[in-house]
Specification:
Chain lengths: 413, 365
């Protein structure tokens, strides 16, 4: 049973709170420089900024969760080593983002294979609506969707399959093998959940290339926001079970301390089922607030918006889960797992709602330059949420949560 | 209830759905118990003064892209002035008794274009000067609907104006006789709008709750104005929508851009207007304005058909692509003519399909 001690000392929650405040300011600064409507670069067009943030987060997850570097981010490091490694991790993540976004998607896959991933390829194709702004938004949408599929598989694979079936090999064999298997399933997921939507983005629907969205009949929308909502609600429980329930109940299926096929399949299917139940519950809540949506409804009336909004709610809760883990030491720690899991889950949902309240309050107008109100076309809280999550993960994974977890430092209660 | 059953129920029985009071944060229990009865009109005629807010889509989008895209503050972009046109609509209302009344909706963007429309392509200039048009509805604070305000005010500075209360300081500065400046990428300051004639008339700032909590502002018998407090692109917020209850026909909506969504407008009326019957709409419907597509646009076509509107007059930010696809799908799109070709400038996206009511066209309800 964990007593919550960090490096042999009690966790300092005041320092955690200060750390969170500093990270909030860093995120605000990044937001102002890169995204804010009155800021410097204004990449929030919206899809371009959205997709860049999603790919950056994917890069952090790729390095830390899939490749498994650093090997033990929970291990305390001396300040100098933590800072050096943290900077290296952040730079590597940015490098991966640039390589994946511009070289892999724009100049390789998009140019020689699937044109909709690439601004230059779409511009070269020509046709109705083909102008720099449109093609940037189109390709960004496709890349964002692929990143969503990747994030899902990266996290659920890690939780369910772990190092299986390469547990007897060295960590780099495991890491790179996971890169390929996660990529493989991401491609299939993208094809099934998102590709049909991307094929409908163009003035001339690419009907020969993409099937009619199979979910339209009962989701009452052809939009892949349906898939986005389901995936993010599933990730909500992937993250909660990993962080708050410390891998339970999935770890009960471990063999010799390792993941395996059965555990992986059960984890995947069970979290997906929990995600679908969450979709059902949120649907009922949204219907109580905004009434029933209907085909063609816009703003809060739109079935498509309802689905992405479920994803946004999930995003808030996932962000809070990581905040709670890194800055508040996953409190409580001194109780039986069942009790602490329940308490953490309640805290996690409440914290997610707190972030929800912030995003839709007048505070966000001052901080983020957001127009008040729900369902602004193109606006999604996920952009800011994912940026925040990225910074939190960079500190937690690459900096070994320095300065909150450093070697040889006495932390008073 | 399943959504599909619900939709069928709406179409057949008129059961209610949709946003109420702006952002729809109204629980079912708070549905209108007393439905609004704002009377009837005999009919109305809508004349398209100008629906060409800009002439070259590519230039407009480049301006947008160069300065940050759809989330950017419209006052931070040094727009290409020579690409600007504007949106203005003349609405003649025929009451059940008495003389017709004319409303102006919106006041365009480029003063040169607005003046040309007012004086050379319509009688709006004379009507304003002679005070026969004494009321202007500002649909929303977007540049192409508002920044040409000087053209209206120099002809009638005392015009009564209804505008969404969700304005920004820059909006009000322009109305009071000011100007706004934006910086180009190389740091040069550019005047992006200007008004030398301060507004001296009555300004009614509209809110979702309307007059006395009815949700609407009654402009005359059979004519109501409703403000939807929705967030819009380019940092703008809120849109005024005109509702007309045409006797023996039903509800007609007239919009600038219809950002809340045409189905939302009708869903609100279905729930809140006494004896609601769907009839028609005119205006920008804000769907495929950038010549792009999205699965949800197919959803809107299905939804419009389900709501059984009988006359859909659209242009401006509706997007030609949507109008053409909707017409193909059986939506009763009111076709335009080729009058727009007689204007000194035409839109780069205009097509011979006449799916739009273009400059100079008229639609009667």
């Amino acid at each position: 049973m964990s007593d919550g001690r960090v490096n042999g000392a009690k966790f300092n929650y005041i320092l955690g709170l200060i750390n969170l405040a500093v990270v909030f300011c860093i995120v605000w600064l990044l937001w102002y420089v890169f995204m804010h409507a009155d800021g410097v670069m204004r990449l929030y067009t919206p899809m371009y900024g959205f997709s860049l943030v999603a790919v950056l987060l994917s890069a952090v997850i790729l390095i830390s969760q899939v490749l498994g570097w650093p090997a033990d981010p929970a291990k305390p490091l001396a300040a100098g080593a933590a800072i050096a490694q943290g900077i290296l991790g952040a730079v590597l993540s940015l490098a991966v983002m640039f390589v994946v976004y511009y070289l892999v998607f724009w100049l390789f896959i998009g140019k020689y294979g699937v044109a909709y991933f690439s601004v230059p390829a779409l511009l070269a194709a020509g046709g109705t609506g083909v102008e720099a702004y449109n093609v940037q938004e189109w390709s960004s949408t496709a890349i964002l969707y692929f990143s969503t599929a990747f994030l899902w598989w990266a996290l659920v694979w890690n939780l369910g399959f772990g190092r299986w079936p390469w547990q007897d090999d060295n960590r780099w064999v495991v890491g790179w093998s996971r890169v390929f298997v996660v990529s493989f399933f991401s491609i299939i997921t993208f094809a099934l959940l998102f590709h049909p939507h991307v094929c409908l983005l163009f003035p001339e629907a690419q009907k020969m290339v993409g099937a009619k969205p199979w979910w339209e009949g009962w989701a009452d929308t052809s939009s892949a926001f349906f898939g986005l909502g389901v995936v993010l609600c599933t990730l909500w429980w992937v993250v909660f079970s990993d962080l708050f329930w410390e891998g339970r109940p999935w770890s009960w299926f471990n063999r010799e301390g390792e993941g395996n096929l059965l555990k992986g399949v059960i984890t995947f299917l069970a979290t997906l089922a929990m995600g679908l139940i969450t979709v059902y519950i949120l649907t009922a809540i949204f219907n109580a607030i905004w009434m029933e949506p209907y085909v063609g409804g816009q703003y809060t009336d739109g079935p498509d918006w309802r689905f992405i909004h479920m994803g946004e709610v999930a995003g808030f809760c996932v962000l809070f889960a990581f905040i709670w883990k890194y800055y508040f030491n996953n409190w409580p720690n001194g109780l039986p797992l069942l009790l602490r899991g329940i308490i953490r889950t309640i805290i996690g949902v409440a914290g997610g709602m707190l972030i929800y309240w912030f995003y839709y309050s007048s505070l966000s107008r001052a901080v983020l330059g957001k127009v008040p109100g729900w369902a602004q076309p193109g606006d999604s809280p996920l952009v800011w949420t994912l940026l925040f999550l990225t910074v939190v993960l960079i500190q937690g994974q690459f900096f070994h949560n320095w300065p909150l977890r450093s070697a040889g430092r006495e932390e008073g209660a | 209830m399943k959504r599909r059953d619900f939709l069928k129920g709406m179409a057949v029985t008129g059961a209610a759905a949709g946003v109420s009071g702006g952002l729809g944060l109204l629980p079912k229990s708070a549905e209108a118990a007393d439905k609004v009865d704002f009377g009837h009109v005999k009919g109305l005629k809508v004349e398209v003064l100008s629906e060409t807010s800009w002439f070259d889509n590519a230039v407009f989008k480049k301006d947008l892209m160069d300065y940050g895209g759809a989330m950017t503050n419209q006052y931070k972009i040094p727009w290409h002035w020579d690409n600007a046109g504007g949106y203005m609509t003349k609405i003649t209302v025929y009451p059940l008794e008495g003389d017709p009344k004319i409303f102006l909706m919106d006041t365009g963007w480029n003063n040169g274009w607005v003046d040309y429309i007012y004086d050379e392509k319509s009688d709006m200039g004379k009507l304003l000067t002679s005070k026969q048009v004494d009321t202007m509805i500002l649909s929303h604070w977007h540049l192409d609907h508002y920044w040409g305000v000087e053209s209206t005010l120099k002809r009638n500075p005392k015009i009564t104006m209804y505008a969404p209360k969700t304005y920004y300081p820059e909006d009000m500065a322009l109305l009071k006789g000011g100007k706004n400046v934006a910086k180009t990428k190389d740091g040069k300051e550019v005047v992006i709008n200007q008004n030398k004639v301060p507004h001296q008339g009555k300004l009614v700032l509209t809110a979702p709750e309307g007059e006395k909590g009815t949700g609407v502002y009654q402009l005359m018998p059979g004519v109501a104005l409703k403000m939807y407090d929705v967030p819009i692109l380019l940092r703008v917020r809120g849109e005024n929508v005109m509702y007309f209850n045409v006797k023996d026909k039903g509800i007609v909506t007239v919009t600038g851009c219809c950002h809340p969504g045409i189905l939302t407008l009708n869903a609100w009326a279905r729930r809140n207007v006494k004896d609601y019957q769907p009839y028609g709409c005119y205006g920008g419907l804000h769907i495929t304005l950038f010549e792009t597509w999205d699965p949800k646009f197919d959803d809107i076509i299905k939804g419009v058909k389900a709501f059984k509107l009988k006359k859909v007059g659209c242009n401006h930010c509706t997007g030609w692509i949507w109008a053409e696809k909707a017409a193909e799908a059986g939506v009763p799109i009111v076709k335009g003519t080729n009058k727009f070709k007689t204007y000194k400038r035409t839109s780069s996206v205009a097509k011979d399909s006449n799916a739009f009511l273009t400059n100079g066209d008229t639609v009667k309800f």
